[in-house]
Design goal:
Blueprint lengths: L1 E3 L6 H7 L8 E2 L5 H11 L11 E7 L2 H16 L5 H9 L6 E7 L11 H21 L2 E6 L7 H6 L7 E11 L3 E3 L14
Helix pairs in contact: 2-5, 3-4
The structure holds flavin mononucleotide.
């Protein structure tokens, strides 16, 4: 059964219906500049203990995706100087799978760690990611957050101005949902994870 991807559902319904769309089911066009602005405006409404604003958003669209591909490829060459041309080309092409990528990073404020540990700052950025995914869904786009080895790579992190303690929380791929539909997905039964005290 197909569920029509709708941008007019109420929040609770949207929360239940949102699902990830893999890059292979995405196509051009990329979200409009206004829609990206809306997604980022939603992102910075995430809960944020101490108003640290730990999130950093790096936007890649159009030809700038090639810059991200080069970063991924260079990182592979550093990890594995014997990497073959096929693997290098795969890294170069990785960001081209969707029209837009937002690399979402957590820049940890170490001066606040006594009261606001890194985990809380990273969770805040995770919540920002979810707001982006929900906003993208609400606008009818396909989106997914992916990590992989590049998210933990020291060279990739350094290209985003990150230190060891900082994190790349995810690369959010966003594009037009080629089929304009979502498929019904079995979700867990929350009572399996709940204890009433
Ligand atoms: C931080 C984070 C990183 C993820 N990285 C990957 C990844 O590298 N590869 C992957 O296949 N799924 C990854 N996922 C899972 C997908 O984004 C997605 O949540 C999953 O496929 C379930 O789809 P759903 O969002 O429709 O439930 C990641 C999820 C999170 C929260």
């Amino acid at each position: 059964m197909n569920i029509q991807n709708s941008n007019s559902v109420d929040l609770q319904t949207g929360l239940l219906l949102r699902q990830s769309i893999p890059p292979r089911l995405m196509s051009e066009p990329a979200p409009t500049a206004k829609d990206v602005d809306d997604m980022l405006a939603a992102a910075v409404c995430a809960p944020d203990h101490g108003a640290i604003r730990p999130w950093r958003f790096h936007i890649f669209r159009g030809d700038s995706r090639l810059k991200l591909g080069k970063i991924f490829a260079d990182a592979l060459k550093i990890r594995d100087p014997k990497a073959g041309i096929e693997s290098i080309k795969k890294e170069e092409g990785r960001p081209l799978r969707s029209p837009l990528i937002i690399a979402v990073c957590a820049k940890i404020d170490i001066s606040r760690l006594d009261k606001i540990p890194a985990i809380e700052q990273i969770v805040s950025v995770g919540a920002a990611c979810q707001n982006i995914l929900l906003s993208a869904y609400n606008k009818g786009y396909g989106a997914i957050i992916l990590t992989g080895i590049n998210a933990r790579d020291t060279y990739v992190k350094s290209e985003f101005g990150l230190e060891d303690i900082d994190e790349i929380v995810g690369f959010i791929y966003i594009g037009t949902n080629s089929n304009s539909i979502n498929f019904e997905k079995t979700r867990p039964d929350y009572t399996d994870y709940m204890t009433e005290w």
